[in-house]
């Protein structure tokens, strides 16, 4: 025996390994085996897609990632507001800002707008902040993917805007940041369209839930607004992601509602319900006015920029100067506006003040978004709705005091009614109002106002603010899948190649090209179907052009109307199968 009791090996004998070395060797073998199995499982997921159980774990991961992103965004905005404005309580920023010198109120938004303008001019090709509308477009047209680099830049720009006095909300940047995370994950998995859209829905639900401490509304927002269907296969993973993000958010911010109501609202009696029908009509008109003010500001700013030759980076800067000028007299426009919304919900504002504040908030939101400073439209619509409802309730309860309950109930219903009409999401908005306030006893009044306002506004605009944004860009999602699915089908994937047995004769095809009847190779069925309708031709040549203007067109193939209709039918069937699975 050697010293320490270790056995020595004789001649020709193998030295046995020590016990620690043997354990280390077994751990290494186990680790290699686990890595091999993980690599094999990951490769299988990338080739065949995840199973339902595997996707639930992916949803959990996405929920945690998007929830942490939303938490980081919210904390960053609060921290920057503290540093920039010098306040210890960002929740009461408006009251603090009223005590600042006027030149600070002007300078801070102006410098913020300048920073945003330079950032967007340098890192985006069009100087535009990406928002919820782009996420909806990504879910419909690009297999659940959004622009990653531009999305991150847009999130940073919106953070600067909200921190320096921009009169918008945080839900837009949070939704887009969450969708960027989902896009990265979809790329790693090589996810197909259905899986990519479901992952996008999970991330969006998590972002909204963590941002507003509203897990039910977050899940329904993703289904109602982004995916625009309530398929059963997507429901469970979206709920898992929403719940995971909410747990993380509550561990940081606590289990508290965003707004605190001093008393629970009570309906006077059922005879008061007609007043909420009328409130819904008023809120629908106010929502349309808010949306059209934003679009008018965008158009006016674009025309002024084109005529004056103003550089792109100066547009947000000038908008910041205008916001600063308004904030000197009305500091309540700064940021998301939850302080003023809370005051409206508890009835602390007089009738005239509520009306003026609502009008000024609409103007400030239009300037911010029209000036391409970034941010979301949900929080402004909550504030405008609460002020509208308070003003309406003040009048209604004074005219019919014997048949009226709490006047502040109208502020709560108005808050939901305007927001639902703007978002085009009556279900999730109704629930998010309940979750933000904790008042579930006044559901009947809120539901009546929300349903009426949404029905009215959707008749005047293209269903919602987001879908109207897309319609203005030429993306026709509001019309339904029978319209936008045509954009996803490329002519070259449906046509019969030149020289194929069932293709049209090349001589006849070139004769039609010389007559001006042809489609380019990069066209989609959105351009092809109206051409079939107009010419009544059974087939149309598909050509490509050379780099020089005088180069003759080259025949690629022929698109037959029957093939186009068959491809459209298959796409509609796939869409219906996804929405009803």
From TrEMBL:
It comes from the Bacteria. One of its GO terms (cellular component) is chloride channel complex. It is found in: Membrane. Gene3D superfamilies: Clc chloride channel. It is a multi-pass membrane protein. Keywords: Chloride, Chloride channel, Ion channel, Ion transport, Membrane, Transmembrane, Transmembrane helix, Transport. This is CIC family chloride channel protein. It comes from Pseudoroseicyclus aestuarii.
